[in-house]
Amino acid sequence: MTGTRARSQFLVFLMLTSTMLALIGPASTVSANNETTSGTITGTETWSGSHELTGDLTIAAGAKLIIEPGTDISLPNGTSIDVRGNLCAGESSCGSSADASDANPVTFTWNDPIVNNSTGDCYGLGFGSSQIWINDPSCGEGLILRDSMDLSQSGFRHMHFEGAWGIPFFIQVENQYRFGALVLDGASPTLRSMTFNDVNTSSVLATNLAQPTFIGGSYVAGNDGESGVTGQAVQVYGGGTPASPMIFRDATFQSTNRGCSNQDGGRSAIWASQTFIRVESSFFIGGDFGLSIRNSAGEVSNTSIDVRCNGIDVYGTKAIGSTVYNVKISDNVINTIDRTPITAYQGAEVHIQNNQLAGAGQGSGIAIRDSNAEIHNNNIGPIGGWNGLWLLGNFDVIAENNSIVETAREAVLAGEYGNNAPSPTQARLYLANNSISSQGSGQCSSSRWWEGSFICPLIMAHRTGVTAVDNVFDSEGDADGIRATGAILDFRRNVFNTGGTGAILQNYDSGFSGQQEYGTLGFFSGNEWNNVGVTYNVSKSSVTVQSEYIPSPPDGDSPVVLSWDDQEAWVNNGWQNGIIPHQVKACPTCADYTPHNFPLAINMDNNSTVFTFSNLTNLELSKINIQTQPTKYAVQVQ
Predict the structure, then answer these.
(1) What separation, in Å, do the N-terminal and C-terminal C-alpha atoms of the chain show?
(2) Number of C-alpha atoms within 13 angstroms, CB side, residue 259?
């Protein structure tokens, strides 16, 4: 009887205990507070107030560190935090008690080395040609975010990095180490209001398809003066995808202050290589270079860039399979002190629209070399150095509805003619509905092509194709409207207001015996020439003009001057000194660079200057100055 009652009482106890445990629920995960100072966090831990590390720290996969707003973390010299799990820093959505702010940030501070001349862990790191020999004891400082983190359990807001030297990280696409205070190894979180100060290398280094979004924040270039590893404010290698690019929005960037030449060692604020990137509504405040976009694609928009050297440099293209992606540059204000606001080189594909570009004390407004560009609705100028548009090499450019004002040299230079110019190649420019003006007093010079100094024309075309339609060209001085050497020209319905010659059209002669010469082949229709002296001055070229009023020149001049200023080209001397048009194709199957909608066949008489006209007002044969040397057949009027 007694045993039965005891057993019943025990069963009642078990039932009550089970009921209470069910009401209470399972035990929660134990969370530590300010516990780990080095080694590995494997559970959940929260830091607040002041927390001092004594060595490197790893947050293991699946583990979580929560850092409360206002926390100050002190780190020894040369140490880092490796986030393989989850980090919730000043972000209430993932576990912090509140959101961090400007007044209450999360701060990481790296201490100075105890022994300044000691050797750090980076000395001899790596192997072969990629091995680095940096003996600075501070090398290795920073925070690294891995792609194994759970984005739903992580967040980053108002984190400040103070005195981080940078972590070395091997970049596969470069086969070299790069350095950053904050490294994103494939990680793609949203980071708000990151700030950096006294960084030796770069503020941010991202790679391995990292697709982060940075909102706000301030990013500075490195200041290392000893190890030769000063980096850009941001370096990205192989980041982003077409659908999910790396993004900077409402951010501020500061590059180096060293100078623009290669010897100066100036750096850009952002360096993006093999990357899809988007920069929006941001600010580049001072320093050397703005953005360098290399074999990458994306967009820079609604951004203010004030730098000494180039504002945006685009090199090459980004392609996936047969799909080529371009770079769009739109709605920006770019002012440079010395160099060029926008450049596109080495096969770049760029769309440049709705920008305001000025400055360039030793550069041009937009420089395109061996690249393709669409340039629309931009305000270019004043330009203190050279040209509004500087186009060189193998280019295909469309420029419409732009305003180009107050250029120191030619407003438009299509094909370089200077002493160091490369060999001419196939290229063309389509210029429509632009307003183009220059100061009309700038001095250009070429002993080889133009017998010395001359006032820079509004447009210079050198061994290239130019289509110009419905533009207005203005010069305040006595500049010529057009100067062309061995070019292919199609000018229709343009207005020229200038005091020099309307168009000076001549042949290209390399000066070497036996080399082929190239005449200028031109078609002009419906153009308006105001205040010019001579309207057309043509030598060793072929020009067709129709439906224009040819103004009367000053006394003693002729409105049209035609010449063949060379020896006769004929069969008995093997057509030496003969002319042909500029080549529009590099090979039979190569791309065709014939000017857009060109109405004439690409050929010309090889031994005569030919002027063909119809429906011209105020012009008769007696007004045409025909120079008949070396033979009367060397000039033809049709």
Answers:
(1) 137
(2) 5
**Do the bridges between strand 323-325 and strand 318-320 make them parallel or antiparallel, or are there none, so unpaired?**
antiparallel
For residue 572, name the pLDDT band (cuts at 50, 70, 90).
Answer: low
Q: What is the pLDDT of residues 487-524, one digit of tens each?
A: 999 999 999 999 999 999 999 998 787 789 999 999 99
3-state helix/strand/coil string of 588-618: CCCCCCCCCCCCCCCCCCCCCEEEEEEEEEC
pLDDT for the residue 213: 98
Residues 6+ apart with CB under 8 A from 173: 207, 237, 238, 273, 274
Closest C-alpha among 141, 157, 169, 293 to residue 213: 157
Kindly report the number of other CB atoms within 10 A of residue 49's CB atom. Answer: 10
- Tokens 């035990």, residue located: 27
Torsions phi, psi for 400 (to 5 deg) = -135, 140
Look up the pTM and report it. Answer: 0.92
> How does pLDDT run across 23-35, given as a tens digit for each residue?
444 433 457 899 9
Stretch 237-243: mean pLDDT: 97
Assign 523 to helix, strand or coil. strand
Residue 543 has a CB neighbour count (10 Å cut-off) of 24
Residue 94 CB-half CA count within 13 A: 26
384: left (phi over 0), alpha (psi -120 to 50) or beta: alpha
